[in-house]
Amino acid sequence: MPVHDLKAPEAARTHRPVVVIGAGQAGMSASWYLCRAGVDHVVLERNERFHAWKNQRWDSFCLVTPNWQCRLPGHPYRGDDPHGFMLKDEIVDYVEAFADSFDAPLREDVTVTRVARRDDGVYEVDTDAGLWSADHVIVASGGYDRPVTPPYAADLDPSIAQLHTRDYARPEDVPPGRCLVVGTGQSGVQLMEDLRIAGRDVALAVGPAPRSPRLYRGRDATDWLFEMGYYDRTIAEQPDPKATEAKTNHYMSGRDGGHEIDLRAFARDGLQLYGSVTGMEGTTIRFAPDLERNLDDADKSYLGIRDMIDAYIAQQGIDAPAAEPFETVWRPEREITEIDARAEGITSILWCIGFRPNYDWLRVGCLDDTGRPVHRRGVCDVAGMYFLGLGWLHTWGSGRFLGVGEDAEHVTDHIIRRLAEPEKRRLKA
Hints:
Number of strands: 22
CATH topology of the largest domain: FAD/NAD(P)-binding domain
Mean pLDDT: 94
CATH architecture of the largest domain: 3-Layer(bba) Sandwich
CATH class of the largest domain: Alpha Beta
CATH superfamily of the largest domain: FAD/NAD(P)-binding domain
């Protein structure tokens, strides 16, 4: 991949006031606001726009949040099923229609290889298609570049196939035999269910992810939480912001109209559950003795959401159906801490434990010691550097269709104000 001379004369580069890196919903939302304000900019995308939605979701993928939460700038959901859950192809149609609603200055198949800041405050954006410069850079490349697998995965017997969420499109992608799904965030539980619906033999390693009600007291739980202002709470208002950022999303499903996922009910019906995976060697897989605790903690989260909704209904005097009684339908008889995968018929591992962003190309001092961006609602202390589309950038909805547009408006407003400042004052900011 070519690297261009960052000291090249101005004539050798293409300058824009703003360069946006990434053409997912975050980057395209920023472009929408910049276009509306008449700000000259370019959006650089290493693949095609909305590549992840088109190529990195499994066939049965659907939204977990209701369609009404799709609120991209100037393009709210206008379909006839606001309380439904769009399937993968419908999501692609939605984001493509949003992109078609304005004329973004988009350059696809352009990979950014380096971003550096000169002493005069101008950013150099090196790409495989030439050198750009900008006064402002919005990083909207998302947080799903590197699939996470633990180091001990390399010690597993190679006869047992290993796949990651990104490798899975349909049950046929998994080799015959029992598949151990690792992780109980939204992806893990949904892929476990996808395999079971297809009649496949599957087991599940249960992590500490929380779970949520789906339909509760006559409405979707997310409807109640939105009305209660829960999604308006900012990261700064959280008791422990770093812990909040690190939390796994509550698991539930939008499949077939939406439903809760109670792993105890799956276990009662024959699904083999284990605790968190702690190690692998040859065909041996080890688990922490935390299955019961993880199930209890998930239920605690579930009941906590119900309690919040109950309190709100009582406080507001809302006439709502009575709450369904809660029942613990299964408990493990013992904690299994080690198995021989071959003896258990396990022929594959499906890792569903998340992703990490890749900022190796970012040569700007805006990351902390762990490689996470340092910002306030996407605005960095390094003048002219911004981030969009990250989970909890500002609120729960920041990395979702619900809140990404509001964050994009905030960031682009900041840029527009800087562009309006006198040149000397702006460069000193």
